[in-house]
Amino acid sequence: MRGLRTALCAGAAAVCVALCGSGVHHAAAEAPASTAWWSATGAAGGGLPAPPDVHTGDLLVEGVGGPASPPAPPQPPAPLPAPVPAPPAPPAPPAPPAPPPPPAPLPAPPVSAGGAPPGALAVAALSFPVADGAQVGALTLGIGGLKPPAVGIIACPITGGFRPVENGPLTDVPPFDCSTHDTAVLASDGASIGFSHLGPMVRAGSLGIVLLPGAADRVVLTRPGPAVLAVIPAPPAPPAELAPLPAPPAAAAPAPPPETAPVGAPVTAAPPAAPRRHHRAVPQATAVPAPVAPLHTAPRVILVATLAAIAAAALLLGRPATAVGSRGFHRFARERTGPAPRV
Asked: Which of 251, 280, 336, 221 is CA-nearest to residue 4?
């Protein structure tokens, strides 16, 4: 019975795991398989040095109206010329015209066959592997150097491959399609940017995106770590058919109960058989009853009484007379002359 219960419990546990295990999924994180960035001052193969605020592994995204890179150390000032007398004050000039409004972000081209869009001075790209059925979550990239007050970076899916490079030429930017894109969101502390709608950009088990700058952007992204992209693994496929329960082991036939003697009946061993002896047959004599003589009770009684009377008379008549003072049976004893013996 114990083996049967164990087999049924194991089968029930397997069914529960198969039916209920698919409801638990744990979020994972992915690191980029490859990264690259290209700039207007880059060279094929990234042979030229990067700006001083861009370290190895970092990414640079810059627009045409963005702040310039940190300037080089200033040169010593030239000596001032000798002062000259001031000329008479000219008439006041007319008021200058109002400054033009800041340029709007560059409209991203819907489709690019390769190369950077107009107005971009630096473009970056990232690629992530994505398993079949997995769901892509948010992408978070840290910001190094100066923290921008706002960003206009957009992410577009790549339609071709690219080679990892740092500070490559803008002509090597891979083709992309911005008909589907996502706009970066700057964190409240200005330390990172995030993209939350990258799921539709997954193609053929890979997420490849290009980061295009806004007109006033210059953002240095720190080296992407191993957990920048949140990924929810695909749930396991339910089994097509539940595996049959294992056959329970054959139960052993119960042993017959031992035979017991009935209560109250003492168990005695049979006496040993006596050895058989051969006896000679002795003829048995048939007893013949003797004839019963008739009893004559009265003559016998009379005869016995007569004989008793004769004996008594003879005893009385033949005994001599006793002297006076005789003591019965002690009449034949002698007189004691000494003390009586002690008993």
From this structure: 251
Return per-residue pLDDT of the chain as tens, 343 residues.
455 455 444 554 554 444 444 444 555 777 889 999 999 988 888 778 889 999 999 999 999 876 655 554 555 666 666 666 667 777 777 777 766 554 455 555 567 777 888 889 999 999 999 988 889 999 999 999 888 999 999 999 999 889 999 999 999 999 999 999 999 999 999 999 999 999 999 988 899 999 999 988 999 999 998 889 998 887 877 766 655 666 666 666 666 666 665 555 555 555 556 556 555 555 555 555 555 545 455 667 777 787 888 877 766 665 555 444 555 555 556 666 777 777 6
Buried-state track 4-40, b at ≥16 Cβ within 10 A, e below 16: eeeeeeebeeeeeeeeeeeeeeeeeebebeebbbbbe
Q: Is the pTM value of this prediction over 0.70? A: no
